[in-house]
Design goal:
This protein is an alpha/beta fold and 501 residues long. The protein folds into two domains: 289 residues, 3-Layer(bba) Sandwich (FAD/NAD(P)-binding domain), CATH 3.50.50; 161 residues, 3-Layer(bba) Sandwich (FAD/NAD(P)-binding domain), CATH 3.50.50.60. It contains 14 helices and 20 strands. A hairpin with a 3-residue loop joins strand 13 and strand 14. The N terminus is likely disordered. Bound molecules: 3-acetylpyridine adenine dinucleotide (N01). 3-acetylpyridine adenine dinucleotide binds next to loops.
Length: 501
């Protein structure tokens, strides 16, 4: 594992001379960006990371049971395959090791500045440089900037009355307290989403009693999780083509799932039947089955995968509560029928703060325009990556780039390569600005929103994919292949190009 915790302070020279590219965030996206830029010959890079280590979501989400719900051979970079995945679905620790391995293999440490909490990112029109200011007042400048801070980087406590009054211990799934001893404790888990269904099976083994508060049941599918035999690892090491072929098979299998998850089709009904079979197979009690049966179309919320969640809920020391919560008291949680459930600890597996603005800090573009204001009605960008009026700025996991059925890293690779093309145009062509035309952006978004209207995500349930007004600025309404195809070409006609004076 690389030592990524200490980062040298920028020298005076670094502060005065702009980097070619500043990247905000050292998770999969930020590090992937640095690798692809480096491979394209751009090495004058600074990566600003607010934490003391790299890894993003996989550094933060270290709760018990944390794992990826996409097979590891697909949830990794195609340009950096790992023949040694221990399982088909690896745990978060192993994914973090993979990220540290990328650091070492591609010598990324030289770019990373840890402990740099960016508080604003402003385009300086005089110098045509992006300026990122940290909470300590340091300013980093770059001819191009890449926003790679991740959409799910801010843990969100829910807005439940009395949350501050609770006298016991509070833990958020994305900020796990590894020092807390759960043994002999009465514990509540609020939430039954992707994080909760991984935490519950582990926690129930440790605690005296676990109470799970469910607001909406999810669709839970079986998870084909296997240990990777040694011969398989050896084969992948000797014949990387075999691993690439498996990746392609996994990719195509996930692509076919789009037909079930994104749109309503006969495959959707088939997937729902599989989900109902999984529930019937694992839960014999009719009443519990009814409580766990979703009443919305599969795919509308993120589809969950677990073989352990339903059995965990049926352990003697576990209880599912579906009464809505009325408030949190100093001893526990009161539900609307007037019962107070008392706990030593409440685990909030309640998701993240996904603001309308899409960025956790102000971003100012041409003429002092504020991204927060422009996106207040819902974020939008051109091909998810550029925003008109914010020249030379590239968004990773920007608006409408989210997958519901395939690996996020497949989408990410397309974004990285697209951004490299744009950045190379700026640097090699000595451009002052490369700014997408508002018309191209509007046309792109009109088409996206039209297509989204026909998807399962917009079919009536509430999820973090939608804003409170029901606007979907999160998901891409199509196959990963379609997303990748649109990112293959850099349509220069869609951009306004201003050469350096
Ligand atoms: O968060 P969520 P998450 N009162 O928003 C409930 C990624 N991820 O951390 O469904 C009561 O999905 C809420 O209830 P409801 C993945 O992209 C990936 O689990 O809104 N309940 C829900 O049950 C995922 O989509 C992996 O009615 C409240 C839960 O809390 C994203 O992270 C693993 C409430 C929140 O579920 C977020 O997942 C884990 C309230 N006031 C996560 N507020 C991989 O394997 C919220 N809830 C890759």
């Amino acid at each position: 594992m690389t030592d990524t915790k200490s980062s040298p302070a920028p020298s005076k020279l670094e502060k005065e001379n702009p980097a070619s590219v500043i990247i905000i965030g050292a998770g999969f996206a930020g590090l992937g960006m640095a690798i692809r830029l480096q491979q394209a010959g751009v090495t004058d890079i600074v990566i600003l990371e607010r934490a003391n280590d790299v890894g993003g979501t996989w550094r933060d989400n270290q709760y018990p049971g944390a794992a990826c719900d996409i097979p590891s051979n697909l949830y990794s970079y195609s340009f950096a395959p790992n023949p040694d995945w221990s399982r088909s679905f690896s745990g978060s620790g192993e994914i973090l090791d993979y990220i540290h391995h990328l650091m070492k293999e591609f010598q990324l440490q030289r770019y990373v500045r840890c402990g740099k909490n960016v508080v604003d990112v402003i385009f300086d029109e005089k110098s045509a440089l992006w300026k990122a200011t940290t909470s300590e007042g340091e300013v980093f400048t770059g001819r191009a900037a890449v926003m790679a801070q991740g959409p799910l980087s801010n843990a969100g406590f829910p807005d439940i009355d009395g949350i501050e009054d609770f006298k016991g211990h509070k833990i958020h799934s994305a900020r796990w307290d590894h020092d807390y001893d759960f043994r002999g404790k009465k514990v509540a888990v609020i939430g039954t989403g992707a994080s909760a269904i991984q935490i519950i099976p582990e926690l129930v083994k440790e605690v005296d009693h676990l109470t799970v508060f469910q607001r909406t049941p999810g669709w839970v599918m079986p998870r084909p999780d296997f240990e990777t035999p040694d011969w398989n690892k050896k084969l992948f090491r000797k014949m990387p083509a075999a691993q690439a072929a498996l990746r392609q098979v996994l990719f195509l299998a996930h692509e076919s799932m789009a037909l079930a998850v994104i749109w309503s089709s006969p495959l959707t009904r088939l997937a729902e039947r599989l989900g109902r079979w999984h529930l019937r197979n694992q839960v014999k009690d009719k009443w519990l089955r009814r409580q766990l049966s979703p009443s919305y179309r599969i795919g509308c919320k993120r589809v969950l995968v677990s073989n352990e969640y339903y059995p965990a809920l049926q352990r003697k020391n576990c209880k599912l509560i579906t009464w809505p919560m009325y408030k949190i008291s100093h001893k526990g949680i009161r539900t609307v029928e007037g019962v107070e459930h008392q706990f030593d600890c409440i685990v909030f597996a309640t998701g993240f703060e996904v603001s309308n603005a899409g960025t956790p800090f102000p971003v100012k573009g041409l003429g002092g325009r504020l991204l927060d204001d422009e996106w207040s009605g819902g974020a939008q960008a051109y091909k998810s990556i550029n925003v008109a009026g914010y020249p030379n700025l590239f968004f990773m996991f920007g608006p409408n780039s989210g997958p519901g059925h395939n690996s996020a890293l497949v989408y990410m690779e397309s974004q990285l390569d697209y951004a490299v093309k744009g950045i190379k145009k700026i640097l090699d062509g000595d451009l002052r600005t490369l700014d997408v035309k508002p018309k191209a952006q509007t046309q792109h978004n009109n088409a996206i929103q039209k297509r989204l209207a026909k998807t399962n995500w917009n079919s009536g349930c509430m999820s973090w994919y939608l804003t409170a007004d029901g606007f979907n600025a999160t998901m891409y309404p199509g196959f990963a292949t379609q997303y990748a195809n649109q990112m293959k070409t850099f349509e220069e006609d869609d951009y306004m190009v201003v050469p350096a004076a």
